[in-house]
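Session log. Operator J.P. requested a structure for one protein chain; no other inputs attached. Running the standard single-chain path with C-alpha cell output.
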Amino acid sequence: MRRSIYDSDHEAFRGSVREFLDRHVIPHTDRFVEAAGFPRELWIEAGKQGFLGLEIPERYDGSAAGDYRYNAVLGEELAKVTAALSSCFGIHYDVVAPYLVELTGEEQRRRWLPRFCSGELVTAIGMTEAGGGSDLAALRTTAVRDGDAWVLNGAKTFITNGYSADLVIVAARTSPDKRAKGITLFAVEAGMAGFTRGRKLDKVGQTESDTAELFFDDVRVPGANVVGEIDRGFVHMMERLPQERLGTAVSNIAHAAQILKETIEYAKERHAFGQPVGSFQHNKFLLAELVTQIEVSQAYVDQAVMAHVEGRLTAVDAAKAKWWTAQVQNDVLDACVQLYGGYGYMNEYRVARAWRDARVTKIWAGSNEIMKELIGRDLGL
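Structure written below.
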C-alpha cells in the first residue's frame, strides 16, 4: 500500500540520507562491527550533512526542520542499514535533542548545541540503572547540592553511546523523600573528575553500538549544568518518552521491512526439490502474512508520526506503537531466519545479524510489558 505521509521534500531528503549511507557507512560496516563503535569522523560527516541538528534552531547551527517526519525518514534509512546505526544516531538527534533545546537556557544552548550539530559533541542519556530497569522512579543515583554545584554519586548501565559520549544527560535523585517528584537532570561532561566508564558491554547483538556502564564518584557538576527544573526530572522524561518510543517504532518497522524484502528475493532465488523455496504453499502463505503484518503496522506508525507532527500523540498511543512494532519486528525476522535455513544462522548473512540485533527492542525504551501496563491503566484496569 502506498504511504502518504511524506511529500517530495521528505523524499528528496531521503535521497540525501541514502547517498550519505552509500558513501560513508555501507562500505565500512564490517569495520564498525570490529571496532564496536562508530568512529568520530562518521559523526562529523553526518553533521556536515545537517542530519544531527534536525530539531536544533538555525542560530545554533541546526537544520531546524520543524517537522518530525524528517526525523522519521532519517531513522528509517539508518535502520535499513543496521539497527545499531539507527540506535546510536537516534539517541543523539532524536532523543537527546529535545532535552537540550526545550529544557536549557541561552548560555547552555550556545555552549552545547553548535557542537551537537557538527558531531563534535556526541551525546547519550543516562536513565537506566542496574536492578531498576524500566522503573525510572526507583533511581538510586543521587545528587547533593554543595554550594553552587551538585555532587553526583551512582551508576548507570546499558547506556547507548555511553563509551564515546562527550555529554550525558543523567537522571539523579535530588530529594530522596519525594520518589518520582525528587529527580533532577544533569549534563555530565567528559573529563569531569570522578566520571568514569566501564568497558564496552558484550551484547548479543548490535555489536557496533558502543554501550557502556557509567560511574559517578563524587562528580562535581556545576549548577550551570542542571537541565530543566530541579526535582522535575521525572516529568521532563515522561514528557519526552513518547518521541523516543515513536522513534523506536519507526526504526523497528523499517529494519524488519528491509530484511523481509531481502528474504523475499532470496526465496525466489534459492531452489529446493526443483523449485524456488518461496513457491511452496507454506512459504508463500508465510511471506504473505509477513508482508501484511509489516504494511498494517507501518500504517499505524505513520499515523502516529503524523499525530506527533500535529502535537497530539499520546503516551499511550506511543506505547502501543513501541510494543507492537517490537513484537512484529522480532516475529518477522525469526521467520526470515527460518526461510534462509542453515544460512540464516550464519553471521555472514544480514538476516542473522538483524535477528540478533532486534531482540533488544522488546526490552529498551520501556519493556513491552511496561508498555502494556500503560495501555491497561488507560483502559481503567
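Operator note: The chain has eleven helices and ten strands.
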